[in-house]
Specification:
The protein has about 300 residues and is an alpha/beta fold. The protein is built from eight helices and eleven strands. About 35% of the residues lie in helices and about 25% in strands. Strands 1, 3, 6, 7, 8, 9, 10 and 11 form an eight-stranded mixed β-sheet that branches. A three-stranded antiparallel β-sheet has the order 2-5-4. The protein starts with a strand and ends in a 17-residue tail after the last helix. The radius of gyration is 20 Å and the shape is globular. The longest helix is centred in the middle third of the chain and has 17 residues. Strand 6 and strand 7 form a beta hairpin.
């Protein structure tokens, strides 16, 4: 796992990266006790994003040296920017209580090669909430290249060990992990390698040439958001004067844990994400201010 976040230095004490949110409205505080499972609290939606400007932006940045820059990098950077301005997106449910993160932990599945036989692995990359497109590009590419040069890693090694445990014993061990996780007692080294403990999980269907799926959330771990995006499409439209112009777009699906924030908050974030993908150059500079979540 790659970590682009530098430790927060404080003269009095080091800030914890995760903390309880204690001042949410009463209804929101009791909702996790009513909807106890993440899958049961999951909302699904798909929207279409205009990427005409994004396509031009990618070509420009590649010519400037970011040769492997893709829509994946920009979508991740856009989500990180959303978190910096709408920090409730970075909350999660643990032990029926609402928690929040300071860093943005992104998980994604990759293959060493695009073949049926090539195994999957999951990378978890940690970013500061003020990360730019270039920060995302460098950190993510370094993590992917490291895996493809030397397959394996913390997650693969841990999963490999567990695969040799007898079925009944493994079932008990997973139950124990879930119980420890519920009480915030999961060993930190396991949480560090677990891709199920993250701010957001993302997958690209575009590289496979198919539409985005609605991916379920996981009841193990803390991931409240799963994003999938499909292949780029083109659409021809007609101006009032009769001239024809071309637009490019991608469909993006979202699986969202409704317990971390309300629908109005999600809608506001979605609108801002559309703005960022229409104006990706805004992601070249850090945000003027990173907004902290409520206490």
């Amino acid at each position: 796992m790659k970590n682009s976040e530098k430790p927060v230095k404080d003269k009095k004490k080091k800030q914890k990266d995760k903390r309880r949110v204690r001042t949410v409205p009463a209804m929101q505080a009791i909702t996790p006790f009513i909807m106890v499972n993440r899958v049961g609290a999951m909302n699904l939606m798909t929207d279409r994003f205009n990427v005409t400007s994004l396509d031009k932006y990618l070509k420009k940045k590649r010519s400037e040296g970011l040769t492997n820059l893709t829509a994946m990098h920009v979508i991740i950077a856009a989500y990180i920017r959303l978190v910096s301005q709408r920090p409730a997106l970075n909350r999660f449910i643990r032990g029926q209580r609402i928690w929040t993160r300071r860093s943005v932990e992104v998980a994604l599945t990759i293959k060493k090669e695009m073949t049926l036989e090539s195994p999957d692995t999951v990378l978890k990359v940690i970013f500061r909430p003020d990360a730019t497109v270039e920060d995302v590009y460098k950190t993510l590419n370094d993590a992917i290249n490291e895996y493809r040069d030397e397959p394996g890693g913390d997650f693969d090694n841990t999963a490999g060990v567990l695969s040799f445990v007898p079925a009944l014993l493994l079932k008990f061990f997973i139950w124990l992990l879930k119980t420890l996780d519920y009480f915030n007692l999961l060993p930190r080294f396991l949480e560090k390698v677990s891709p199920f403990h993250c701010s957001m999980f993302i997958t690209s269907m575009g590289s496979l040439g198919i539409p985005p799926i609605y991916h379920h959330l996981y009841d193990f771990g803390t991931c409240p958001v799963f994003i999938a995006f499909g292949a780029k499409k083109r659409e021809y439209k007609v101006n009032p004067d009769g001239s024809v112009y071309k637009e490019q777009y991608i469909d993006i699906s979202f699986s969202l844990d409704e317990r971390i924030c309300d629908g109005f908050y999600y809608a506001s974030a979605l609108k801002h994400m559309k703005h960022l993908l229409r104006n990706p150059e805004e992601l070249d500079i850090p945000p003027a201010k990173v907004i902290e979540d409520i206490k």
